[in-house]
Design a protein that fits this description.
There is one protein chain. This protein is mostly beta strands. The protein has one domain (10-58, 78-146). The protein is built from 1 helix and 8 strands; from the N terminus they run βββαβββββ. The chain has one helix at 54-57; strands at 5-15, 26-29, 36-48, 84-105, 110-116, 119-129, 135-141, 144-146. It is globular. The N and C termini lie far apart (37 Å).
Length: 148
Amino acid sequence: MQAMGNMQFNNISVDNSALTNVPCGVVISGVPGHYIEGLAFHNITFRVPGGCTTEDAAIQELPSFVDQRPEFSVLGEKMPFSAFYARHVRHLRLSEITITTTCHDVRPAIFCEDADGLDIGNVSFTGMFTGSEKIRLVNVINSRINGN
């Protein structure tokens, strides 16, 4: 059995703000029963274009990578988040993260589903986030969010 996990990503700056055909930032997606474990993102800055609608924010789930290559195109053109999406993960840590949108965006910046041991700390949202939620959690257990 192959597994992915126990990785750290530190001191990274990502600027996708000029890429109008890229509707989001990072996708971390295991498959049911095969979780990605032990990822940590620290001191990360994202600039994303935003510009998405209430219809985009209302998307409830994205296609699975089960029996498919894990390519971004599998997910489609519309995303229900702007910066971070994580599903089928255990022990994911997001700390000291700054997410900026350059256009109005009603989607949450961070969307996590089917997660165990999620730790989110000191995330700041700047720019034009206009939606009612900045972080969306679905089927998440043993989580901690602080300093936001």
